[in-house]
Amino acid sequence: MAPPLFYDGSMATCKAFINACQIYITTKPWEFGDIMAKVMWILSYMQTGMAQQFRDAFLRNTGRNFLQAAPGTDPTEILYCNIYQAFRDPNKQVTAILDLTTMKQGTKSAEEHVQCFKQAYSCWGYQEMAGIHELKRSLNTPLLDKCMSVPELPTTLEKWY
């Protein structure tokens, strides 16, 4: 089991970071002697950007007082909630719209690009025709030209995939 990647405070990877920490700690409990060891281990992976600022402020302002949670309360779960509150995506639909309207295929294969597009489109909430327009706009020119050369263009997003 690999430890989580270092976390920089990105909204896009916040939940994945928390999940990776939870999985690692759950699968290797013998590596953590107490709650303090768990908390410090989680914070040790917050080394750059806004995550580092969160960690530094947490250690400066909260420190050991944090570990004195109410009986039956797991301080690591409180820490995860604090991380999520600080770095979660406050408006997933707006983020999805931004992702879709700026998405480009670039060097990704058509399959990879379609998977990324599907994921962002699932949060979008707009009509299918707008989705088709954004998918076409995001494709590399050679692939788009090939798609547009078919005699009958698909009329649903699923057929475009």
Describe the 3D structure.
With 161 residues, the protein is an all-alpha fold. The chain folds into 2 domains: 14-87; 92-160, no CATH class. Helices cover 60% and strands 0% of the residues. It has helices at residues 14-27, 35-44, 49-61, 75-87, 92-102, 110-121, 128-138, 141-148, 157-160. The model has no long low-confidence stretch (mean pLDDT 88).
Notable features of this structure?
161 residues; 2 domains; 9 helices; mainly alpha; Retrotransposon gag domain-containing protein
Number of helices: 9
- Low-confidence runs: none
End-to-end distance: 35 Å
Summed up, the domain count is 2
Number of strand elements: 0
Judging from the principal axes of the Cα atoms, what is the shape?
Answer: elongated
Protein name: Retrotransposon gag domain-containing protein
Organism: Amanita thiersii Skay4041
Topology:
Layout: H1 14-27, H2 35-44, H3 49-61, H4 75-87, H5 92-102, H6 110-121, H7 128-138, H8 141-148, H9 157-160
